[in-house]
Fold:
Amino acid sequence: MSFLKVLTGFVPWIVFTLAASRLGAGAVGVACLLALVVAVGLIIRSVRHGESPKLLEVVAAVVFLVLGVVAFAVPASDAFLAGYGRALAAVILAVTIFATLPVMPFTEQYARESVPREFWTSPRFRAINRRISAVWGAAIAVMAVSHVVAGALDTPGSGGGVLSRPVDLVFNWVVPGLLIWAAVAFTQKAQAGAKAEQQAHANGAHEATARG
Structure:
């Protein structure tokens, strides 16, 4: 599984967070538009490379399209979305990840690119990806709570950027960054365990064949 591709799937969400944080109330629609453009660009890139669009990319496109329409059509919603739009987007993403676990864990899309096709339907492959995807879903759900705290305590219109607003820095960036790091670390550990188990199974089969 390519961690770079997984993290690239989060770029639209990062763009929205950065733009909403820097621009604040009055420009949420612009932040949504920027995130939508990035998401659509990622979808087009996947299609051009002969790959199916990833869940993160599709959900981002839908979420930021809807939020953008609301922000532009209902100006009164702008202040709310400036404070809580990131939390709302994270909640939708977490719910989507959990909802698709029984059908197609989102990490399975990335894992299939480096795992032979004959293993795609194996119970072990599906179980590992469900566990990894569930951890990512939990991390994003906690991230949503962090964004809610930021929206409740921060003042987006105060100006001065992220560094001059410690609440925004901690709850919209530091905490989400640590959660992503923890999810990546868990994914690496789970993958290493799966590879070690597969190697041990292969070695055992080889020894049994040699004895036979």
In short: Residues 4 and 28 are 28 Å apart (CA to CA). The mean pLDDT is 85. The two ends are 36 Å apart (CA to CA). The first helix runs from residue 3 to 8.
